[in-house]
Specification:
Layout (H helix, E strand, L loop, with lengths): L2 H10 L9 H16 L3 H8 L3 E10 L5 E12 L5 E8 L4 H17 L6 E7 L7 H15 L8 E5 L5 H14 L5 H4 L19 H13 L11 E5 L3 H12 L3 E7 L2 E4 L6 H11 L9 E3 L1 H6 L4 E4 L18 E3 L8 H9 L3 E3 L1 H4 L2 H14 L6 H26 L3 H20 L4
Parallel strand pairs: 3-4, 3-5, 6-7, 6-10, 10-11, 11-12
Antiparallel strand pairs: 1-2, 2-4, 7-8, 8-9
The protein binds nicotinamide-adenine-dinucleotide (NAD).
């Protein structure tokens, strides 16, 4: 959809955004796909704005006795396919428009994977490294209380995202359970996913997003002339997604050449040891100072020649300012929205294939779905079962995106949105409008 049509749609909704705004960019791409699919104007209006945008402010007593005010967000974009689902990010730079975009992407991701969920996202404006564990627990519990009945196992189910983790999910679930009806305490823990294994978590959830990236690459890379056992790659971000993707790829023989994180970049011509690097990051908080690796600049990192570049950190890290430095054949979006439209244009012009985020990183939400299902059925699946079911869902979705790209003769990104929109359109048409 061209930008004036997107502007007209936003004007009808009394919304206005700059063209560089991340929400504007996300909706523009979704609407471009929606136009290929041919959805109604009414459905376009529904997709162009979230159903609910919640912002909460709450005080917390800090360790030194002072009180600090915190700001949290929960955006619920769409629930036509099922309860809202999406992570909660803990980061000092979270803003409403970022959370709105990520909520849209969750709607698209769940629809593409054909999961019975809608899309949501949350955020807490906080650097979790700057507070103690006790403070983190009190902040999380107060945030959960502030969200109140806006979350729930049948309504909206948060999960971890950047800066949050299984322990934080355990505190969220425990807080929610304390408010739950007396005869509903067991089921209440399925209010969040990504919990620790001992408290209703799923086997395989921690590595699920990285596992899903590898499952997708196994389907798509042969058609691109790449072999996972011999190819080289670099990674931006070595947290949950980056480090698991790297460990699983390296186990297949792929060579990790370079890594960039929030503190700097490292390189090794013969390949970095992905497992040892994960331990180093757990102990020191960053990839810098990893034994035997060469320290390189950010520019050198981007210019490093590799078969695959895998961004697994923040949004919009690849843009017109650095896209022309990049020297890879395939860009694998393990992070959400890591490439701006201007960056994408430069990469595509140079023949780089972009594998879209809503497909590549959907392993996390898929195993979250497995966790929710196990909680509700009081079951515990083993890791082999989880991996097998995940692989089937990821493989089916990767084939679906390929087929839709051929059908509409479009990029894999637009194809991934188009496949999601086809599914949502079908549900809207089956459900009709109440009353
Ligand atoms: P994480 O907090 O575990 O790790 C984030 C990584 O990004 C860290 O290594 C950090 O050093 C790095 N980073 C932060 N700022 C940076 C900067 N300015 N430059 C370079 N590196 C920087 O987060 P995560 O869970 O791995 O999530 C990473 C991305 O993947 C996010 O976009 C998230 O939304 C997305 N994602 C995560 C999951 C999941 O299951 N965790 C699922 C789907 C998508």
């Amino acid at each position: 959809m061209n930008s004036s049509a997107v502007d007209d749609l936003f004007a009808e909704l009394e919304m206005s955004y700059a063209t560089g705004n991340i929400y504007y960019q996300t909706i523009s791409a979704v609407l471009e796909a929606a136009q290929l699919v041919g959805i109604s104007h009414r459905e376009q209006l529904i997709l162009a704005q979230p159903k609910n945008e919640l912002m909460v402010h709450f005080p917390v007593r800090m360790d030194n006795g002072s009180y600090q005010l915190f700001k949290g967000y929960r955006v619920q974009h769409n629930n036509v396919a099922g309860p809202y689902k999406g992570g909660i990010r803990y980061h000092e730079d979270v803003y409403l428009d970022d959370i709105k975009s990520l909520a849209v992407l969750m709607t698209m991701k769940c629809a593409l994977m054909r999961l019975p969920f809608g899309g949501a996202k949350g955020g807490l404006k906080l650097n979790p490294r700057e507070v103690s564990q006790d403070e983190l627990m009190r902040i999380t519990r107060r945030f959960t209380a502030a969200l109140g009945a806006n979350i729930g196992p049948d309504y909206d189910i948060p999960a971890p995202d950047m800066g949050s983790n299984a322990q934080i999910m355990a505190w969220m679930a425990d807080t929610y359970i304390n408010f739950a009806e007396i005869n509903n305490k067991v089921e209440a823990r399925s209010v969040v996913t990504g919990k620790p294994l001992a408290f209703g978590g799923s086997a395989g959830r921690e590595k699920a997003t990285g596992q899903g990236v590898v499952d997708v690459l196994e389907v798509l890379t042969p058609g691109m002339g790449l072999t996972l056992s011999t190819c080289s790659y670099s990674v931006i971000g070595y947290g949950n997604v980056g480090s698991w993707t790297a460990r699983l790829l390296s186990a297949k023989g792929a060579k990790l050449r370079a890594v960039l994180d929030h503190r700097g970049a490292i390189f090794h011509a013969k390949g970095l040891d992905a497992e040892a690097l994960a331990i180093h990051v757990r102990e020191t908080g960053s990839v810098v100072d990893f034994k035997g690796a060469k320290v390189i600049s950010e520019e050198e990192f981007y210019a490093c020649e590799v078969d695959m570049l895998i961004p697994a950190a923040l949004e919009q890290m690849i843009h017109e300012g650095n896209a022309s430095l990049i020297n890879c054949k395939v860009l694998v979006e393990a992070a959400n929205a890591p490439v701006t439209p201007e960056g994408e244009e430069l990469l595509v012009a140079r023949g780089v294939t972009i594998l879209p985020a809503i497909l590549c990183n959907a392993g996390g939400v898929t195993v979250s779905y497995f966790e929710w299902k196990q909680n509700r059925q009081s079951e515990q699946w083993d890791e082999e079962t989880v991996d097998r079911r995940l692989k089937r869902i990821m493989t089916d979705a990767a084939h679906r995106v390929q087929q839709v790209a051929e059908k509409y003769e479009c990029s894999l990104r637009i194809a991934s949105y188009a496949s999601a929109v086809e599914h949502l359109k079908e549900i809207y048409e089956l459900r009709g409008i109440f009353p």
